[in-house]
Design a protein that fits this description.
This protein is of the alpha/beta class. Helix content is about 25%, strand content about 25%. The protein has helices at about 65-75, 135-145, 165-175, 190-195, 220-240; strands at about 1-5, 15-20, 35-40, 45-50, 80-85, 95-100, 100-105, 150, 155-160, 180, 200-210. Strands 1, 2, 3, 4, 5, 6, 7, 8, 9, 10 and 11 form an eleven-stranded mixed β-sheet that branches. Helix 3 links the parallel strand 9 and strand 10 (about 180). Helix 2 crosses helix 5 (about 220-240). The longest helix has 18 residues, at about 220-240. The chain binds hypoxanthine (HPA). Hypoxanthine binds near residues 86, 182, 183, 209 and 218.
């Protein structure tokens, strides 16, 4: 069973045939929402809305540890994390799908590890390649098989939010090597790695990053948003066929 974490604009999966919902508690507190179990295509999946079902949690308020723990506890074999991002690179305009292959983390003050406290060992998780190679490749193939384009690589910058970046901050991120920018990719990916849970990121560009095409907003142009959600859904359907 795979887990799907839905981000902004994808708080539910229209095609999921829901079988049941389950409230899960964890040693790290409550996840963003109850887990939704169901079938998509030919497979069982568990779905979670990262921001809660009413989009009530800002990126820095999300209990990433509880979310990843809850999914891991269900025995899932991997996580497809969906997120909207701002596009920095010219070939990553609004509406484009990107499957990043690396991360720079600019977030701060979030509970970002399971390995802390007196009873926990000191563990330095290997993270040079933060996404699971095989799951990324499956995802990229599925997007193509569904007839959609994606950029199969790129560096995801995770900012703290909830405010958007300044134009100067985006130029700095660009100089650092970032291609897209979002607020929720970390510590989610690192926590999945700590639990040895394969994790891949499916990013939908919602806007040009600040200074890259007018004032940045996380709002989609409605037509682009609808097409993007349809592309993400088609990719998931193809992945799970
Ligand atoms: N910046 C940060 N996070 C985002 C953006 C952005 O421009 N768009 C969507 N999430």
């Amino acid at each position: 069973m795979l887990a799907i974490i839905g981000g902004s604009g994808l708080a539910q999966l229209s095609e999921l045939q829901v079988t049941h919902r389950q409230v899960v508690r964890t040693p790290y507190g409550d996840p963003s929402c109850a887990l939704t179990f169901g079938r998509l295509g030919e497979q069982n999946v568990v779905f979670m809305a990262r921001h809660g079902y009413g989009h009530s949690l800002a990126p820095h308020e999300i209990n990433y540890r509880a979310n990843i723990w809850a999914l891991h506890n269900q025995g899932v074999k991997g996580v497809i994390a969906i997120g909207t991002v701002g596009g920095i690179r010219p070939d990553m305009p609004p509406g484009r799908l990107v499957v990043p292959d690396n991360i720079i983390d600019y977030s701060w003050g979030r509970k970002h590890t399971y390995f802390e406290g007196p009873e926990r060992p000191v563990v330095h998780a290997e993270f040079s390649s933060p996404y699971d190679v095989a799951l990324r490749e499956r995802l990229i193939r599925a997007i193509g098989a569904a007839g959609h384009r994606c950029v199969p690589g790129g560096v995801y910058a995770c900012t703290q939010g909830p405010r958007l970046e300044t134009a100067a901050e985006i130029l700095k991120l660009e100089r650092d090597g970032a291609d897209i920018v979002g607020m929720t990719g970390m510590p989610e990916a690192a926590l999945a790695r700590e639990l040895e849970l394969p994790y891949a990121h499916l990013c939908l560009v919602s806007n040009w990053a600040a200074g890259k095409g007018g004032a940045a907003t996380v709002e989609f142009d409605p037509a682009t948003g609808a097409a993007g959600v349809e592309a993400v859904t088609a990719a998931l359907r193809s992945l799970l066929a």
